[in-house]
Amino acid sequence: MKPWLLRGLGLALVHVVVRVLLGAALIQWPLQGSVLRWLGFAVVVVAAFVWAGLDGIRDHRAHPDPDEGDDLTMRWLAAGAVTGLVGGVLTWLVDAITPIPVGVTSLFFEITSGAAFTVLLVFLPAMAAVTLGRFFARRNERKTTRDDDWSVHREHHAPVGVGAAAPEGSAPANSAQQADPAWRSDDSPTEVFPKIDPKP
């Protein structure tokens, strides 16, 4: 099954279930209609957002180069169209067959204006989720790479004492200066050598 078809059918099922439950809930709590509608709206948006976010993460891990990744924009646009059309038809059938007041005006409205609204309801959160999913996957990848780089570790930048890396038992470079006190005094006498005539 095509990825866009799978996502479209899955979200269409979510859409229909939410509308059926919303219709049944309005019968029991008619005064809470506004809250229940917003809750159903949020369920559909969150379902599309989570699924698309996982798509973005998986796509970046499979294709670190953005130019080689899958076209998730067209995938989710097609998924939104399937959700709007299939969800609208199924909701109309539920309203026509069952006594649950789903709130369907007509089949024509469900496959035109209702479907267009459902497309936006799926597509816009999906695109935001794909972008965020790729961003977090890229940041996690960079963090892992930075942790594996020995040049950024604290031990690499730790100060090392003079002579710490010298072999045990070896004398330091300035041992002659330390052995002869004359090197440490500016008042020490200076030996003068006689001038040598180069002519015999």
From TrEMBL:
What residue ranges are annotated as transmembrane? 9-29, 35-54, 75-94, 114-137
Q: Where is the composition biased (Low complexity)?
A: 159-176
Q: Specify the signal sequence span.
A: none
Q: What keywords tag this UniProt record?
A: Membrane, Transmembrane, Transmembrane helix
For this protein, the record's InterPro entries field holds: B-4DMT-like
Kindly indicate whether the keyword Coiled coil belongs to this entry. no
Q: What is this protein called?
A: B-4DMT family transporter
**Region (Disordered) residue spans:** 146-200
